[in-house]
Please model this.
Amino acid sequence: MELVKVDIGLLFWMTLTFSILLYILGKYAWKPIMKMLHEREESIEKALNAAEDAKKEMLKLKAGNEQLLLEAKEERDALLRDARKVKESIIEEARSKANEEANRIVENARESIQFEKMAAINDLKNQIASISIEIAEKILGQELTDKEKQHQLTAKLLKEVKIN
Amino acid sequence: MIRMLLIKYRQLAAIIMLSLLVAFTAQAAENNTSSHPVPSKTEETANPSSEAGKFNAGEMIIEHIIDAHEWHILTWKGHSVSIPLPVILLEQGKLVVFSSAHLHHGTEAYNGYKLEAEGPHKGKIVKVKEDGSIDEAAKVPLDFSITKTVLSLFISVALLLILFLSAAKRYTANPNRAPKGMQSLLEPLILFVRDDIAIPAIGKTKYMRYMPYLLTIFFFIFINNLLGLVPFFPGGVNLTGNLAVTMVLALFTFFITTFSGNRSYWVHIVNTPGVPWWLKIPVPLMPIVEIIGFITKPFVLMVRLFANITAGHIILLGFMSLIFIFGTMSPWIGIAVSPVSILFGVFMSLLELLVAFIQAYVFALLSAIYFGMAIEEHHHEHAPEEGVQP
Model:
């Protein structure tokens, strides 16, 4: 059978050629190709990872922003609430102060009225005293004789003395 | 997954082997019937159209499949047009070089050498005596000629080098870029060899060591299988269907496996763990089985590729021969048969395209599996599963 005969020449050429092919391709083709494929895969992997990271970072930032916005809103609300409280307290205070002032003024007025009144009463008392003395002088001077007349006079004088 | 693929592939191989067998019997029958009345002369029988009635399909097919000292391109009006190739002989330490054109297709002797057309040394270059008769006493000189197969080997190697060196240049010139042109055709195949052959069979840690070899055999077999399907000049040679070629490839795999075998690999062969002692001690049954397996693996690699590719060529040529076989009865029958033959030929060519890829894949895969078995670290506590047998 020629078909299954193995020629030594062909065996020799095949071994030689295939060895050379294996060496050249191994050194100058497969090595750089495999290295480049590996590097490219790594760079793609890295790029994908970076994109994923960026996406996560973005989400985090977005969440942070929302958080910030929420906090700002809360702070604003708190500020407004405080301001309102302050305003009310100021109004309250003002009102109470005004009341106090008014009361004080009224009190003062009342005091001064009292004072004036007392002064007036004192004055009146003094006048009464002097008038009484005058009356007494007059009575004493005119008619100290008649008892009746004395009483009448006293009554009349007293009537005259009207307390304002 | 690999197992399933092997099973699937086995069916295909069985079909092809069967076809091979059929083709062989057909060829043998042809030889028996036709070679008796007509003393066959190689040149004339290889020329189907010139002499109707003398067409011998079996010889024509074998002519196309086996090696030759010249590259026959076509026969035109009874003259064969072929490329003469250098004949390199080594005889008793002497190197003899001359063109095969001097041998005149075996019809003439030159410098005491003749291309034998008959007998046990058919197709070989033998010594002749002064009177032109074959010198039976002299040994057949060692033949290192650049034959048709060797030239086709050189062409395919040149093609492989051009393809991959230019691709490698592209890779280094623009790193980290998407592949372009030829690169994008080759890259999926390279990745296929890496991701579907080397890594699953050998493992992620050690596969890099075997990648150059696996890629080289994969592309060598694939490209040569494809070139073998091209019917015109640089192609059409049955290179991967030549036993010497597949033997060299199988031996490469065998030696790489043997030299990378670790301790547990050898222990498995000599003293298989997890097997009852009586299978080893009085009669070393297991070691014998293991050693047979050790030798069968490369042998099977060699035969598988050879048989598949040769069978494909035989079937294709067989269909084409049908036209001429019928043509010798009557040209009209030949014409009538030709569409059927062409249809089957096209179908077989498509099938062969698939086979071209599958064979390259299987050869690389099995090599990778053998390497993986050689470097695998076994745990001897349990009976380990024997590797995938081809």
